[in-house]
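[step 3/7] fold_predict: job queued, chain A
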Amino acid sequence: MMTDPVADFLTRLRNALMGKHKTTTAPSSKLKVRIAQILKDEGYIEDFRIDEENERAVLHVTLKYDDKAQPVIEGLSRVSKPGLRRYSSADDLARVRGGIGMAIVSTSRGVMTDHQARKDRVGGEVLCTVW
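[step 4/7] structure written:
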């Protein structure tokens, strides 16, 4: 049993980027699919898809690199962990790297970016930061 599936997903992305892989896979869940959708919408990854392999859903993520073969994602960091949850109100959401990066927040209205959470005036659990 995995204690922190989100941290595992972020680690898989981080390791694939360090290895200059084109794609990576992870066990699929609704939360990981939503995180992948946000990363795609914000331009951090190329694409993702969900496949059924051996009766289990697998999330395939296509990573994105710039014209110099450098990863678009410079860093991924897990903020809220199972042992220490981090919550923030809309007013207290910190700007990631001075607004260059983004945080992914789980709110009562769903999982969204910190920019959207500030706009909607809703706080929640800060899952991770991306820059």
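[step 5/7] annotate
Helices lie at 5-18, 30-41, 114-120.
The mean pLDDT is 96.
exit 0
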